[in-house]
Design a protein that fits this description.
The structure holds two protein chains of two kinds. By secondary structure, chain A is α+β, with helices and mostly antiparallel strands. Helices cover 19% and strands 33% of the residues of chain A. Chain A folds into two domains: 31 residues; 97 residues, 3-layer Sandwich (Rieske Iron-sulfur Protein). In chain A, strand 5 and strand 6 form a beta hairpin. The chains are: A alpha+beta, B mainly alpha.
């Protein structure tokens, strides 16, 4: 009695196994190529969201009055200031002169660029030194325990 | 002496008419001068001034022709309105104009009722200017108030049509200072406007930055005078604060003071100041340093070190930027690396300011921190490109895998189809 594999017209077991292996492994590889990007999308990236119009700039209890912090807004730095009388203001931290990063000076109560001594007031207006334009101002909102900064819509 | 007496008489007469102590009128005053002069239409001397006066700030504030020309603008009879007994002086003499304007503009109490913010020291400043000093010596070709502010169409300096608006002031000064015929005998150049027009300051001004320096920023306005060697640094330092501070600490300060070299001007020039570049410091053909320093001296070596440091960081930044651009164009996220790149660039900007201390160690220290950041940005760019290559290979492999699936399925289907055909064949037999 001859085995099925030796019957005329039937595939030999080696070929059938190879076919099964090829099919199984390529299905596995295809599924991996589909699920890998999905997994990468679901897991949080090591850095924050980019090019968005809003960002969480600080926690509500993070800044004392008359203090400030630099936060990342897209691929540019932003400056969040907690005013002495309360309330927040946020600006682009990029100096309008040569793109250096500006900083809040608590003692002078101004925003200062260390590159060429450009000075802005706490409304972001260029008041001294080479900066030709005011700093871009952002909207600031409190959302639960977070301070959210949003880009203003262009008029 | 006679002129002075006439002026005193004029001011007394005008004062008697109540101008000096007047408050701004609540309704438009009677100004019969215009009724007649407007009839002359396009007559350059009689009609045009009357037409222009409609746009003048003094007219807007309720002043009449009599404020400068005297007379009585309420009288319809020209003999009465232009009666010298009523203070009519006709066209004021050039030499008298500064004091004529100052009659109101130096009166702080009077000016407060019109514009409390306006300064009242213009005449005092004018007296210190080259213009004022020459006028006092009898030179009536120098600028007086009306040459800069206009005559019958004077506007506030903030008005865009004002001759002293920042965008128009250089041309106003050039009206005399670029006129070779007019400037003959003064022995000063007449190419300031041409030079300034090609300068970085003018380009900034014309680009819309009204805070950019014009003639008055460096020379003063009413007290216009050349800054002089001693004060050039202070003048430039009003905007370029750090450069001034660093220069004061630099080894150049003392010898240049002794040699009476004007600090900033010696390297950057005056009216035609051009954007700076790293090539200006060092020992290359275009470098300023080689004008004084010789190969082998300390300054030469410092210049070489400073140049090498700046160029090194600039080049490292360009490499990093190139990689990041490439990765970004390919769709990779390099936002974090862009922040690092911006910080590295900031170090370069600071190092370029540090140059004014002419201290190689100081520049190298700033450059060093920039190089570290540039290296970080460079690595991030390489990592992004590596990730891009990995993704491309992954895409290739996954496409290959999908092709295998399709091929294997085809083989499987064919195998099943053949099996079915054999069973049917056997069944039919």
């Amino acid at each position: 009695m001859a085995s099925a594999g030796t019957e005329k017209g039937a595939s030999p077991p080696g070929r059938r196994q190879l076919l099964g292996f090829l099919l199984g492994s390529s299905v596995f590889a295809s599924l991996a190529s589909i699920f890998y990007p999905i997994l990468k999308f679901v897991l949080p990236p090591p850095s924050g969201e980019l090019d968005s119009d809003t960002v969480v700039a600080a926690r509500l209890d993070e800044l004392a009055p008359s203090a400030a912090k630099i936060f990342r807004f897209g691929n540019r730095p932003g400056l969040l200031i907690r005013l002495p009388e309360g309330g927040y203001r946020a600006f682009s931290a990029t100096c309008t002169h040569l793109d250096c990063t500006v900083q809040f000076r608590q003692r002078e109560q101004d925003v200062w660029c260390a590159c060429h001594n450009g000075i802005y007031d706490l409304r972001g207006r260029n008041v001294s030194g080479p900066p030709p334009r005011p700093l871009e101002e952002y909207d600031v909102h409190e959302r639960g325990e977070e301070i959210v900064v949003a880009r203003r819509e262009q008029a | 002496m006679r002129t002075r007496c006439r002026l005193v008489l004029f001011f007394l007469t005008v004062g008697a008419c109540g101008l000096g102590a007047q408050s701004p009128p609540s309704s438009p005053p009677t100004n019969t001068c215009l009724d007649c002069h407007l009839i002359f239409e396009d007559d350059e001397h009689l009609g045009v001034p009357a037409q222009l006066f409609a746009g003048d700030i003094h007219a807007a504030r309720g002043l009449t022709c009599a404020a400068c020309h005297g007379g009585d603008p309420r009288e319809e009879d020209s003999d009465k309105s232009m009666d010298p007994a009523k203070g009519f002086i006709g066209v004021p003499k050039r030499a008298d104009i500064p004091r004529l304007c100052a009659h109101c503009h130096s009166d702080a109490v009077f000016m407060r009722s019109y514009n409390p913010r306006l300064r009242t020291d213009q005449l005092a400043q004018y007296g210190t200017s080259v213009h004022g000093q020459r006028l006092r010596r009898g030179d009536t070709r120098v600028a007086v108030c009306s040459d800069c502010h206009g005559i019958h169409d004077i506007r506030p300096a903030s008005a865009t049509l004002s001759r002293v608006h920042p965008l128009r002031l250089p041309q106003t000064c050039a009206g005399c200072h670029s006129d070779r015929e007019h400037m003959k005998g003064y022995e000063i150049p007449t190419d300031q406007w041409d030079e300034y027009r090609a300068s970085v300051h003018y380009r900034t001004l014309a680009g819309g930055d009204l805070a950019a320096p014009t003639c008055a920023t460096c020379h003063g306005n009413h007290g216009a005078a050349p800054p002089g060697v001693a004060s050039v640094e202070r003048v430039c330092g009003t905007c370029h604060v750090f450069q001034e501070q660093l220069f004061d600490q630099s080894p150049h300060k003392q010898p240049w003071d002794m040699m009476e070299l004007a600090s900033c001007l010696t390297c950057h020039g005056n009216h035609g100041i051009q954007p700076t570049g790293d090539f200006l410091v060092g020992t290359g053909e275009e470098a300023f340093c080689i004008n004084c320093h010789l190969e082998g001296d300390g300054g030469w070596e410092t210049a070489e070190k400073i140049h090498a440091a700046l160029v090194g960081l600039d080049s490292a930044l360009a490499d990093a930027a190139g990689l990041l651009d490439q990765a970004e164009r390919a769709g990779m996220d390099v936002g974090e690396a862009r922040l690092v790149q911006a910080n590295a660039r900031e170090s370069l900007i600071k190092a370029r300011v540090d140059v004014h201390a002419f201290n190689a160690a100081r520049v190298e220290e700033t450059v060093e921190s920039g190089l570290e950041l540039a290296a970080e940005a460079h690595q991030a760019g390489e990592a992004a490109l590596d990730e891009l290559a990995f993704r491309r290979k992954g895409l290739g492999l996954s496409l290959l895998a999908i092709a295998f699936v399709v091929f294997s399925l085809w083989l499987l289907i064919r195998h099943i189809e053949r099996g079915k055909e054999e069973i049917i064949y056997k069944h039919e037999q």
